[in-house]
TrEMBL record:
EC number, as in UniProt: 3.1.3.16
GO annotation, biological process: regulation of DNA-templated transcription
Substrates-to-products reaction catalysed: O-phospho-L-seryl-[protein] + H2O = L-seryl-[protein] + phosphate
Spans annotated as Disordered: 684-705
Lineage: Bacteria, Bacillati, Actinomycetota, Actinomycetes, Streptosporangiales
Record's protein name: protein-serine/threonine phosphatase
Molecular function (Gene Ontology), one example: ATP binding
Broad enzyme group: hydrolase
Keywords (A to Z) from UniProt: ATP-binding, Hydrolase, Kinase, Magnesium, Manganese, Metal-binding, Nucleotide-binding, Phosphoprotein, Protein phosphatase, Transferase
InterPro entries linked: Bact_Sigma-Reg (IPR052016), GAF (IPR003018), GAF-like_dom_sf (IPR029016), HATPase_C_sf (IPR036890), HATPase_dom (IPR003594), PAS (IPR000014), PAS-like_dom_sf (IPR035965), PAS_fold (IPR013767)
Amino acid sequence: MAPRGDAPATDSASRTLVLGIDGSRRIVQCGPNARKVLGRDPEDLIGRPATDLVGEEAKAELDALLEAKDGGQERNGVMTVLRGDGSSADAVVTAQPMVGGDPAAGPAALLYVRVALPPSERYQDPALMRRALMDDQVTRFGASLDLDQSARKLVEVVVPHYCNAASVLVLESLVAADEVHSESGSAVLRRIAVTSDDGNAAWTSTFPVGEVLVFPEGTPYRQVMETARPVHLPHVDAGAAADIARRWRRGPAGELLSDVSMVLLPMIARDTLLGFIACTRVPGFRKFDAYDVEIGMEFATRAAIVIDNARRFSRERATALALQRSLLPNRLSAPSSVEVRHRYLPGSKLVEVGGDWYESIALPGARVALIVGDVAGHGVRAAVTMGRLRTALHTLANLELPPADALHVMHELMIELGETEPHFATCVYAVYDATTGTIEIASAGHLPPLLAGPAGDNEFLQVPPAPPLGVAGGAAIESREFTVEDGSLFVIYTDGLVENRGRDIDDGLARLQKIFGPDSVDRPMEDLAKATLAGVYADQHRDDIAVLIARLRRLPEDQYASWTLPADPAAVRRARGLVRTRLEEWGLEELQYTTELLASELITNALRYAPGPIELRLLLERTLVCEVLDRSAALPRLRRAEDDDENGRGLLVVSQLAHRWGTRRTAAGKVVWCEQTVPGVDPDASKQVSGWPGEAWPGESHHRE
């Protein structure tokens, strides 16, 4: 005959008696330790009804436990058992049914009676204490790689199996994920876990978790750090406790430590002292002896390995997160009429870095570059490649290259990187012009963007296909221009959002379309961003995910003006008058003189080098932008004219008077622009974009400093 399941677990703070119960609920077998547990001899118990073990108020409860055996069920409960000397004790009683034999030939159930040891008898058995500390406990609290969680589980093992109260202190440099060096007694420590088995709140208030401190000289805490050896104090009398409290300037510590027995166990891993475990037995319990210290040091040695592993993981994770934060944009920028939201979620919880990235870059002329890319692979290697591409693409965007040209340069860069190590990436690059309401998109092997109109319709935009960046051969990268209705939602994303092991990509695309359906027109952007990642956090096998959502609105018509001027020197005078009148309407009279001069220089430059009519544009957003469009593809360059040169000073004047200036090519020619700051308005567009949600969300740590 064999019991069903395992026997109830025992620990160093309890003692268990096993009894055999027959079908009539009488005791037919009794363990040899009946006197230690119940103060009775086995002969006095055999033949008695099981209910004689408990008081009148608990008989019905014990009957219910024994009835469960008929259904093959194991039950347990807490009840008061009677001792031989007439006293009583609280016990955990477990009834286990027996299977595989004749009930008439032996017990039909086993009854486990577990009572707490009296204080004077706890910690008496070294073998029981060692087994309670070592058997499976290190595996249990060492399963986590989080430093704080490992420390909390560590003290839960030490208390109550080894002592009544315990705390774990480690080097502050260890908590900060810094390199841990050999430290002296004056090392800065942090207390990361405290617990006790008596429920006394004074332990956690006197020795608070999270406290950073340096222990004073003359205390046992300083001694363990100076010697890196265990400190054994069999009995701390009231005078010694008061001395510790005085040196520490912590009065309540004297009351808690009075008449206790204490041992401080250093945690040493890889020949480096990481901290120590402070173990305390309160008055009334057996004092620590030398054998207890030996057992404690064996446990502390194993605990140090766990703490060191958690420390190494924390440092690697902090390094990876710092890398990811440095590679991804800290904040996004866009024109005032465009609202942008983003989400980023790494595929691996262990490494937490990946090759996906996103960008929203405000460009001159109320335009914005919206970019999402995905480097093949995971982890640090993919993140490093992503950082190179993002930096290059950010530079190309600021150079105002068209999307197709920028991706072509990126393709050449990936080919060069692939000579040392194969790489490829997909990317979609879009530029939205808030004055014309058009968006130009180029894609290299990426999934199609989603455009949701204000009327509730949506579609995946058909962009000319091209192979991923870094893949030799295939079609050239081309762009396509779309006209966007005012208030439309533009969504670009990586494949991790719509594809995983348990879902086909078509299902994922259909889900994305449903999110941005008719009801998405008036939904807050933050709600839409949350909806895109709903349900993906529980997927342990997901790919990296990057999502960029933009609500595209045109710049109000009263914030920009455009005029076409003939290729005639008289156009310069007319341009001055047009600029003066418009700035008066905008209330920017103080910028009139400078803007007239800048417009004159740009138009004069166009008249000299470009044929055909000239277009002059003024845009008022966070800055005042003056643009001159002509039909020449040649880009001007800044040069310093010699004293006897008659020309070459126009762009020098522009560079000195404007906040910044630049050029870009168009399909019909080029644009030369200059920008001035508006008094009382912050020109930093990135501060105006609400890229951060109002509440915490998973992955937020990847975007904030």
